[in-house]
Amino acid sequence: MARQELNLHIGVHVEEALLRRIRALVPGARITYQPYTPYETGHVPASSLAEAEVLLGYHVGFELTEAPRLRWLHLASDGVDHLRGAPIMSSDVQITNTRVFGVPIAEYVFGSVLAYFRDFPGMHQRFQVERTYPSNQWLEYCGDELAGKTMAILGYGEIGHALARRALAFDMQVVAVRRTAEHSEMQDGAMVHPPDALVSVAAQGDIVVVCLPLTDETEGLVDASVLRAMKPSAYLVAVGRGGVIDEVALARALRENWIAGAGLDVFAQRPLPPDSPFFDLPNVILTPHMSGITRNFPPRLEWLFCENLRRYLANEPLLNVVDKQKGY
């Protein structure tokens, strides 16, 4: 017999379709709804928090003692670094996250890479804004091709796999680092190495993509030694967590041409301060942490949450369970 009662609080903006599917799964569910953005503290009304058995939200801005009945927290984001050291990480509350960003982030990376290699930003300014037709476009806009180049992927999870498939379709070579790899081996056309090969993998890349989660082990991992090991012609793309990269070292690397350029979508500080040195660097393409968001996100979240809700009600293992020991 289907379960008829459930106290569920939703703290994110969702489509009406999700609410309808939840009510179909649990007709007698008591649903409270107060959405907030990923950058707000995520205040949940005290009455909803006290009763909630299941919570769908972004950041957890409450004390665990305020939610004595909480059994399952689903984060509508991927990263859980904001929970490092929080009591919920040592509790028996199940935490799942929304790992559905492989496709949009992989497409974003190639958008950034192609824009850099073909100088779309400079071309837009000179031609479309300043209306200056080149005297010899064959020389001024002679860019690079991706075919034959090497993509180095630091963090070979869902996003890394999506990147590798697309890189291989571009006739590129792929090397990667994965935390769980015990030895170097080919995996679906990519040469995957254990974590201690980080520097050598970065050194091989014409394009180096940082998509590592932020944990105690990865904070500041991409430091001056990694950046100095990279090719002077290399382009770095950051789509994981900004804190993984030593930003002081990165700014210096870009100013002093240790590397050729960077596409940055994530930063150690959000929002990126207006006085950040990255704004003044001509070899950087900046975006405001939007690589994972497309119009396909709501239906993906809807499917994942409802499938997990079905599993939760049936006492089946949930999808995308956060490993609290690893921190992701």
What distinguishing features does this structure have?
Rossmann fold, alpha/beta, 5-stranded parallel β-sheet, 16% strand, 328 residues, 8-stranded mixed β-sheet, 10 helices
Structure report:
This protein folds into two domains: 7-100 and 295-313, NAD(P)-binding Rossmann-like Domain (Rossmann fold, 3-Layer(aba) Sandwich), CATH 3.40.50; 102-286, Rossmann fold. Strand 11 (235-238), helix 9 (247-255) and strand 12 (261-264) form a beta-alpha-beta unit. An eight-stranded mixed beta sheet has the order 8-9-7-6-10-11-12-13, with helices on both faces. The chain is built from ten helices and 13 strands. It is α/β, with parallel strands linked by helices. Helix 3 (102-117) packs across helix 6.
- How far is the N terminus from the C terminus? 35 Å
Question: Which class do the helix and strand fractions yield?
Answer: alpha/beta
Principal-axes shape call:
elongated
Following the backbone from N to C, one meets helices and strands in this order, namely: EHEHEEEHHHEHEEEHEHEHEEH
Compute the number of helices: 10
Task: Please mark out the parts with pLDDT under 50 across 5 or more consecutive residues, or reply none.
Answer: none
Helicity range of the residues? 25-40%
Number of domains: 2
Report the top-level CATH class of the largest domain: Alpha Beta
Known CATH architecture of the largest domain: 3-Layer(aba) Sandwich
The CATH superfamily of the largest domain is: NAD(P)-binding Rossmann-like Domain
CATH topology of the largest domain: Rossmann fold
User: Taking strands numbered 1, 2, ... along the chain, how are they ordered across the largest sheet?
Assistant: 8-9-7-6-10-11-12-13
The radius of gyration over CA amounts to 22 Å
Biggest sheet: strands, sense, closure? 8 strands, mixed
Strand content: 15-25%
The total beta strand count reads 13
